[in-house]
Structure formats: C-alpha cells, structure tokens
C-alpha cells in the first residue's frame, strides 16, 4: 500500500491500514459478525509492528466497525445487533429513566458451582466455578427486585471484586473485554418463596414476576444467566406495538389495584 497524504503531509501508517480494513469491511469482504484474521497475521500482511496494527484496530473500534474481545479475537460489528452493552436495557435502567430512585444492595458475591439449570444455559464449559452475584433492588426505598446473576468462567473471577453497587454487571463485563451481542428474557407470574421473601419483606406466597435472562457474547457464548424475582404489586410491564417494532419496558405501579376492584 502506497503512503497517502493529507494536506501534503504523509498519513500515519496505522491510519492507512485502518482505512483499508474499513473499505474491505464496508465492501463485504469481512461480513458482520465474522472474525478478522489474527493480529500477527494482519501485521505481517501489512508489514508493520503489532503496535502499529493495534493502533489501526483501535481506530476501527472507535468508529464502531469492529469489536475486540480479550483473548478471543476481533470481530466485525454485527448488523442490527446490541453489540454495545449499554444498549441492552434492564428494568433498572427503565425505572431510572422514568425518574424513580433505584438503589442496589449487594447481598453476596462468591465463586460457586452453578446449579444444573444454569449449567444447561451456559452449555459447554459452564459447569466450572462461576461468580454468583446476589443483589437487592430498592425502588423508591422499597425492596422490589431480588436478583441472582451467574457469570460463567473465566469472566466471573475477573470481575468478582468490582463494586456492583456503583457499577452495572454489563459495564464490568465490557471493561473485561466481553462484547455482548444479545439477551433473551422470559417473564412469568409466580408465587414468592423463601429466601427471597425475607429479602423483599413480603409474605411467602405473594404474587411476583420471575424474569430469567440469558446474555450472549459476540461469539455466541452464554456469559450471564440471571433470575430476578419482582414484587407483583410494585411493578408492571408495558408494551407498545407498532407496524415495524415492539417495545417492552418495566414500569412502577402507581396505584395498585386490590383483588376484585378491577373493571372488566
């Protein structure tokens, strides 16, 4: 590749490499979600050091064209995918955006053997010791959500010492180099059981929502499995349907309806 110029001055080599890779990505030589060649192979191809190559990759990352995963490789950003963790919204984010006061209390965080249903969600390699993170969410001062999150190895050990009162789980994973692709969530009505009843200060048997979410990284690996128990008379689920999309979010119940008081 010849050396380009900008305003009569030579363009830095890493910028030339970034421009060439960007063109190849946009032209479809590397498809969305596809892994780029290894850094050593790319540096040899362009005849530069690893440091120069990494500067070029950082340029592409800043442009949103690629996602780099520590220890796994570099991938072209998927089309229409939630590849940035802060675009995966939770009920906590929904409530804060609505102006509610949401406080997180960390009840425990330890490396443990996950139960069978979590191992099943993790798939291969998910049976080793994982981070079990237990949190309580207070909505406007009232205990409203009891959440247990399992983070698969090796990421659990990497982030276990983070301050999850101030840092979200997704943000901690992003700092650890984990790029999130998507999350699937299932919400069902249930009855409150111990020990969550004690944390939520509700009698056992109270109506609750149970949310189960599996968060998947860019390479298709399930990295987080969550189970959240939500007090039934504190929260509601709102849906907005349009011709081209469906928007679902959590909302706080402002005027709980007593049994038998609803209108048909």
UniProtKB/TrEMBL annotation:
Transmembrane segments: none annotated. Keywords: DNA-binding, Transcription, Transcription regulation. One of its GO terms (molecular function) is DNA binding. SMART domains: HTH_GNTR (SM00345), UTRA (SM00866). Residues 11-79 form the HTH gntR-type domain. InterPro entries: Bact_HTH_transcr_reg, Chorismate_lyase_/UTRA_dom_sf, Tscrpt_reg_HTH_GntR, UTRA, WH-like_DNA-bd_sf, WH_DNA-bd_sf. PANTHER family: MANNOSYL-D-GLYCERATE TRANSPORT/METABOLISM SYSTEM REPRESSOR MNGR-RELATED, MANNOSYL-D-GLYCERATE TRANSPORT_METABOLISM SYSTEM REPRESSOR MNGR-RELATED. One of its GO terms (biological process) is negative regulation of DNA-templated transcription. This is GntR family transcriptional regulator. PROSITE patterns: HTH_GNTR (PS50949).
């Amino acid at each position: 590749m010849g050396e380009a110029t900008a305003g009569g001055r030579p363009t830095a080599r890493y910028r030339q490499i970034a421009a060439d890779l960007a063109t190849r990505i946009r032209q479809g030589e590397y498809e969305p979600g596809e892994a780029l060649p290894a850094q050593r192979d790319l540096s040899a191809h362009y005849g530069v050091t690893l440091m120069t190559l990494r500067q070029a990759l950082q340029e592409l990352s800043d442009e949103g064209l690629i996602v780099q995963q520590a220890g796994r490789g570099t991938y072209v950003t998927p089309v229409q995918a939630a590849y940035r963790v802060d675009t995966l919204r939770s009920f906590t984010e929904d409530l804060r955006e609505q102006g509610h006061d949401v406080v997180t209390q960390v009840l425990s965080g330890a490396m443990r053997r996950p139960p069978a249903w979590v191992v099943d969600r993790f798939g291969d390699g998910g049976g080793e010791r994982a981070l079990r993170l237990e949190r309580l969410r207070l909505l406007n001062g009232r205990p409203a959500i009891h959440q247990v999150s399992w983070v698969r190895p090796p990421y659990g050990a990497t982030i276990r010492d983070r301050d999850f009162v101030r840092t979200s789980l997704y943000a901690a994973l992003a700092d650890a180099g984990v790029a999130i692709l998507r999350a699937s969530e299932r919400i069902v009505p249930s009855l409150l059981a111990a020990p969550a009843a004690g944390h939520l200060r509700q009698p056992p048997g109270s109506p609750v929502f149970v949310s189960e979410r599996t968060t998947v990284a860019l390479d298709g690996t399930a990295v987080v499995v969550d189970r959240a128990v939500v007090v039934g008379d504190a929260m509601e689920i709102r849906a907005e349907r349009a011709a081209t999309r469906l928007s679902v979010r959590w909302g706080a119940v402002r005027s709980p309806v007593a049994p038998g008081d609803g209108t048909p």
